[in-house]
Amino acid sequence: MPEIREQYQRAPDPKELVVLEGSAHAQLIFETDEGEQLIREIVRFLSEP
């Protein structure tokens, strides 16, 4: 997690760090229990002005 937070700090705005439970990443996360939450977070972030 420290490396992820460091990369997050260097990334330009707009940005938001959302940490989900589980260990899946990349496209595999969409097949987990966290997949629906991830989609909601993506849509919410992209819908903000």
How is this structure best described in words?
With 49 residues, this protein is mainly α. The chain has one domain (2-47). The protein contains 2 helices and no strands.
In short:
By secondary structure, the chain is mainly α. Helices cover 45% and strands 0% of the residues.
Write the layout of secondary structure elements.
Elements: H1 2-10, H2 35-47
Strand content: under 5%
Shape call: flat
Structural class: mainly alpha
Average pLDDT works out at 93
The figure for the number of domains is 1
Order of helices and strands: HH
The total count of helices amounts to 2
* Main beta-sheet strand count, sense and barrel state: none
Note the quaternary state here. Answer: single chain
Give the strand tally.
Answer: 0
Gyration radius (Cα, Å) is 12 Å
Low-pLDDT runs: none
Distance between the termini: 29 Å
Task: Give helix % range.
Answer: 40-55%
